[in-house]
Amino acid sequence: MHNTPHDPASALAMRAHFRQSQSRTARLRLLVDTGQELAHLAPAAMRERVLERACGFLAMDHGLLQEWDTKGVAHTSARQGNPAHLARLATLADRSRRTPYWQELPGEALPSVLHVPLRGSDGGTFGVLVLGNSVSLRAPDHEDAESLQLLATLLAAHLENDRLLTTLKGRDKHLSELVNRLLHAQEDERKRVAYDLHDGLAQTLAGLHQRLQGFAGRCPPLPDALAADLQAILTLAQHSVGEGRQLIAGLRPVVLDDFGLFKALDKEADRLRDAGVRVVWQVHCDARLPSQVEIALFRIGQEAINNVLKHAQASQVQLALELRDGEAALRVDDNGRGFAAGQPRDDAQHLGLATMQERASLLGGRFSCVSALDGGTRLQASVPAHFNGTCP
User: pTM value?
Assistant: First the structure.
């Protein structure tokens, strides 16, 4: 039997290659495992986990994460190790570094220190991982340092995304508050204008119409041409009184305050009936709701009816108002021409839908619009029936 002669050089080469393979596997596992974990952790836990992984990867027993806020003030957001030694690490944190930096401090409690910067999408450094060890170590090789830099970059991306999301939520909340105030002010102004019109112009028009009727009743027989003119004036005055009442009802319907949401919506639906559109109430609820709920759903229903009259070319509209599971739900279905998803709509229609959506959202509710070309449109709004906030 022939034996292959033993080659020490080959054995050493195989061992070195095996160790290199192990190192690459460890680096890959560090990045993959940590990346999967960070996707499910809160920001504070992300910082702790990355610091723990970084220390474990280089077998270093101390570490901290130093971050700088928008004003340049530094604070430690994660730490591991002896507090007294960590205080020294914090003084070493350097924001000017752009790449990993190895530091040797002979004679100190932590003689070996590694700095790994956290860089944002703009290239600027907003934080740094500072790792230290109580026993002097060799500087990590280039691949290990690069792996830790990738780990820090992964953390930086998650933290930046969280900051952007927090900023976006704050702006969205601020915008909602502004819209809320705008709608509230708009409702107050509508109420004021409605009362001013009712007590001023509407009364004047009604008085004018009555005086004209009285004059026509006392007037002696007139020639046909003058009689026709007088009748036209009476008709115009009567029409002006009707338009004034309709305008006041649109601004702030008295029936909503006096009789509730169903009666107000049914009165609003008279505009559909007058236009020859058949109105069918599938279900309705006469219960009184909080004022802000009634106003929001009334405005949504009013805008939906406006859309039917202006755009739908419908012959029938089905309405539903009901209480279910603690919510007040309004539905408006028409059999009009509808529109396809992505089909351009005019600015007024788009703004109307956006306003309906915002009114429901401000009360913690939901709004949906489903339509199909030549298949009609369904608008639905549901809001908490016992909302106690201050939204209009």
Answer: 0.55
